[in-house]
Amino acid sequence: MNREAIFLKRLLAVIAGSGIVLGLVLISSSNYLLFHTLAEGFSIVIAYAMFLIVWNSRKFLPNQYLQYLGLAYLFIASLDVLHTLSYKGMRIFADESANLPTQLWIAARYLESVSLLLAPLWVKRKFNLPLVVGGYTGVFVLLVVAIFSGNFPDCFVDNVGLTSFKILSENLIVLLLAASMVGLWRQRDAFDSTLLTMLMGAILLTIGAEIAFMFYVSVYGLSNLVGHLLKILSFYLIYRAIIKIGLEDPYRLLFRELQQQQTALRHEQIHLERHVQERTAELSRLNQELQQEIAKHHVTEKALQQSEERYRLLAENIEEVFWLMQPTPVERVLYVNPAYQTIWKRSPEELYRNPRLWIEDIHEEDRDQVQQTFIKFLQGENDYQVEYRLRRPDGSIRWIFDQGFPVRDDAGTLVYVAGIAQDMTERKQIEQELRMKDDAIASAISGIAFGDLDGRLTYVNRSFLEMWGYDDPQEVVGRFSVEFWQMEARAQGVIAALQRRENWLGELVAKRKDGSVFAVQLAASMVVNAEDRP
């Protein structure tokens, strides 16, 4: 999509939006009740739609901020429905005063502001779905019962105006919304920049709406009109931020977090390899020094003590478990450093008393493999490098990377085995999350493809192959993406837009392997890493 088309599209959107706002203003001057119903109806429909879209897209939304908001807005919109139906002039409820709709309004805004404040807590952690649904259901029922039974504080008194409770509540809600912006900003690294801007703008407009509602003296007054218009704009931004991304670009957030986790995994892997290499090199050097000192026999006692002290300082201050054992004639653990207690949650003395604890603490599914690898290592058939799961005394599981090397005397006889065991649980968790996201992409019902900056395909999922009529990814990967579209010039325009870092949304005619064609709704965007590089 070229720049002129983008400008025209945005201009039409501005004109249409301005027309809608102008139309609502004109309607409000002649029939305020109709204006209020339309304004609230817009926000209610958007909120319910947001819940449905976020709920059905939850498998593809990597952070749970959006899922939590979608669920919260289901209950917020339900309070807004009651507020709309109870508005002065609707004549649905027996209470025709302006107090009832104002109470329902303030209850909905409390629920909205608290939800926006809590939502950043779930950016990097999972919430308990039944607990959250139960909590919101309980709060919703409690608010409705309190309001309709007359146990909720009055918010509006005819011929007087707003009560002090209503004004105080609006101020408190503004503070809660401001705090929610701070919380969202602190978690900004977890969001696409466009999404973050829209969410911050929506909250800011909501604050403006609440300030307007502080000053109205009539349900048909100017400040009420301004507040509802700001609410419409706020929900429009939420539509752009959540529903648009959920419908038109449902994988952008997933790809972004996937890229971040891949980068983190690479850094973790590089760090782990460097760490192990450094520790292994240091231990090998010290081992060689020790062997040389033993072989010489004439080394002084002081030199031996110095070597021993260096060895002890290194062993006792590394995060990994350093272990030394005697394999024959009786298998015996001679030494483990303090890191053993940190990772294994056992004291070294327990292991010295019962050397079998080392193998018994290994997960039963991994135990045989570790034993066989160690036996072959002692026989000189292979190196001892193995990954296994450790089951701690409290039942928790940790992943361990363990490696050992032989210590021999001058005759080449194996005397000791020394080794390093490292906790790699965090790395395993990152790998598991990456596999889950890879599976989600591979099994998605939409056709998904990745390509390089030149437009050459590097990955396609199963749905893409089925849609285009191919059986094997090798038939597709490596080819230019323009080959799969009927109008290659227009497809080239998509690539050009992405190279300019512009998102592209539109319809193209695709070309199957057998030559047949079909229409496709295409959403394309650039995937960048944590350094904002493609």
Automatic annotation (TrEMBL):
CDD domains xrefs: PAS
Top EC class of this enzyme: transferase
Cite a single GO MF annotation: protein histidine kinase activity
Cited InterPro entries: MASE3, PAC, PAS, PAS-assoc_C, PAS-like_dom_sf, PAS_fold_3, Sensor_kinase/Photoreceptor
Q: How does it sit in the membrane?
A: Multi-pass membrane protein
Gene Ontology CC, one term: plasma membrane
**Which interval of the chain is the signal sequence?**
none
Q: What are the PAC domain coordinates in residue numbering?
A: 384-436
- Which compartments does it reside in? Cell inner membrane
Q: What is its EC number?
A: 2.7.13.3
Which key words are in the record? Cell inner membrane, Cell membrane, Kinase, Membrane, Nucleotide-binding, Phosphoprotein, Repeat, Transferase, Transmembrane, Transmembrane helix
- Stored Pfam families: MASE3 (PF17159), PAS_3 (PF08447), PAS_9 (PF13426)
User: What domain of life does the UniProt record list for this protein's source?
Assistant: Bacteria
| Catalyses which reaction(s) | ATP + protein L-histidine = ADP + protein N-phospho-L-histidine
The record's principal subcellular location, in a coarse class, is membrane
Family annotation (Gene3D superfamilies): PAS domain (3.30.450.20)
> Which residue range or ranges hold the PAS domain?
307-381
Q: Where are the transmembrane segments?
A: 7-27, 33-53, 65-84, 104-122, 129-148, 168-185, 197-219
What's the protein called, per UniProt?
Answer: histidine kinase
